[in-house]
């Protein structure tokens, strides 16, 4: 059944593929598709994987349109065929390999992120009080997983290889290779060793 639906949507996906193939963010979209490919019968970025993701993975649509902000007119026309989710808001400066789970309630507005950010549903990343440099939003490193219902705000820095547990409220910086949980947040694992360090 999936294969039949995919073939029916080939015509609708033609502009989607052209914008991906010749657009300014092809490398980033390739990495985004590779991260989402485990939910599909395809493994390599290309027309079939893009078609499948646009049909069945609605959060990926929001990632796709975020990457195509520089070609807004054509991307807006493409929305006739594939509507993005209004419940997922994605800011600028998000590194390649972005994976968003679930269809609802994500607001992701960091200062910038590294590669391979994973975001669960009901996650909020945004502004807090400005620091001495005037920065108000978080900087997030590579390979960070932000679980369901987490809130991250302010001019903090989250290191590489960090797991943020469900429901965590985070407004203080986190070093590399940590697992953070709770409200108030605390580090429960650092460099693969158990610990209990309040932030």
Structure description:
The chain is α/β, with parallel strands linked by helices and 199 residues long. It has two domains: 85 residues, no CATH class; 113 residues, Hexapeptide repeat proteins (UDP N-Acetylglucosamine Acyltransferase, domain 1), CATH 2.160.10. It is 27% helix and 22% strand. The protein has six helices and 15 strands. Strands 2-5-8-11-13-14-15 form a seven-stranded mixed sheet. Strand 14 and strand 15 form a beta hairpin. Helix 3 packs antiparallel against helix 5. It is elongated. The termini are far apart.
Query: How many β strands by DSSP?
Result: 15
CATH architecture of the largest domain: 3 Solenoid
The main sheet orders its strands as 2-5-8-11-13-14-15
Radius of gyration equals: 18 Å
CATH topology of the largest domain: UDP N-Acetylglucosamine Acyltransferase, domain 1
The number of helical segments is 6
Structural class: alpha/beta
Cα separation of the termini: 50 Å
- Average residue pLDDT: 90
* Gross morphology: elongated
Order of helices and strands: HHHHHHEEEEEEEEEEEEEEE
Give the number of domains.
Answer: 2
Quick overview:
The protein contains six helices and 15 strands. By secondary structure, it is α/β, with parallel strands linked by helices. α3 packs antiparallel against α5.
